[in-house]
Amino acid sequence: MNLFDVYPINPINIVKGIGSLVYDDKGTEYLDLYGGHAVISIGHTHPHYVKRLEDQLHQIGFYSNSIEIPLQKQLAEKLGQVSGKEDYQLFLCNSGAEANENALKLASFYNGKKKVIAFKNAFHGRTSLAVAVTDNPKIVAPVNETENAIFLPWADEAALEQAFADNEISSVIIEGIQGVGGIQVAPILFLQKIRTLCDEHNAVFIADSVQCGYGRTGKFYSHDFAGIDADIYSMAKGMGNGFPVGAISISPKIKPWYGELGTTFGGNHLACAAALAVLETIEQDNLMANAAEVGEYLISELKKFDKVTEVRGRGLMIGIDLPAELSNVKKDLLFKHQIFTGEAKPNVVRLLPALNLTKAYADKFLQAFDTTLKNS
Ligand SMILES: Cc1ncc(COP(=O)(O)O)c(C=O)c1O
């Protein structure tokens, strides 16, 4: 049996990881500034994470949502506290797409409306409605196409007001910083405008925090920079540091009813243990402050490179715009300097390292980046 061949892959077999370093099967060391798509939040094999998962596995790994799982309540409490949304409600699932799918569905249950506003270059996942509000027709199958998705230009307040005119909007979904879209930071005034219009029209503000959330920007949710509360925050990636877990954090104004949402695996014992270990580590090791500090340092240093067109981002979610002729940079960083980075179109190097990245590793990257640019 062959694998279904959908991923263009690098010929590297990573077999081990510690903190911000990973090692291949030949023992070559790599600096990981990508965290496997922004997933590794507290570093590979963090001792507290390993111990909590190991201990849990010796107790019980899984039982369904038909019984009491106190770990879920502990997680809700901790997440409420660390995210500063103590009166919100937690629904646990397994991935970012599933979190958004549930958020969009919940919004529609809440206000009985159908239309969803999304934005140019948005990425919200690959399941049916999540992909329908993702701005990439190539990955939208005919069965996923829907007239309920409305795409608006990024940060265009007039277009937003106009779209609300018919009062049919169920929800607005927006990443605080577009990730796949090339690290585009949502302007504060635009997020505030969404909040106002959603309030005026009984629409639900969904803050997709799957990539930009979980402390990566120095605040727990990157939408927090706008000083507003969204109605639903979706999250995944950094939440489990590699263990598949996703969630939505739901405003107290949205009331649940039995059967409204559900999942077999979501909120299982192991997933909760992983998510708790991540939050405990973020808190104990002060990782949001570190993300803000090391991120600010990286951004200010990167802005000094002449060949860089633009540097965007917040904290440890950084996009480096390069001119088209420097299309080799990401590959050179990987194969000549053993540094993993990400990419976005047209020629953006994406940095999404663990939140405990040290300044020394940031400097190592800056040096390699300098050499790569000089030789390009
Ligand atoms: C902003 C955003 N939302 C949703 C998703 C989908 O998450 P998943 O791949 O876990 O389904 C992603 C994944 O890249 C993402 O970046």
Automatic annotation (TrEMBL):
Gene3D superfamilies: Aspartate Aminotransferase, domain 1, Type I PLP-dependent aspartate aminotransferase-like (Major domain). Its cofactor is pyridoxal 5'-phosphate. InterPro entries: Aminotrans_3 (IPR005814), Class-III_PLP-dep_AT (IPR050103), PyrdxlP-dep_Trfase (IPR015424), PyrdxlP-dep_Trfase_major (IPR015421), PyrdxlP-dep_Trfase_small (IPR015422). GO terms for molecular function: identical protein binding; pyridoxal phosphate binding; transaminase activity. Keywords: Aminotransferase, Pyridoxal phosphate, Transferase. Signal peptide: none annotated. It comes from the Bacteria. Belongs to the class-III pyridoxal-phosphate-dependent aminotransferase family. PANTHER family: ACETYLORNITHINE AMINOTRANSFERASE, MITOCHONDRIAL, AMINOTRANSFERASE CLASS III. This is Acetylornithine aminotransferase.
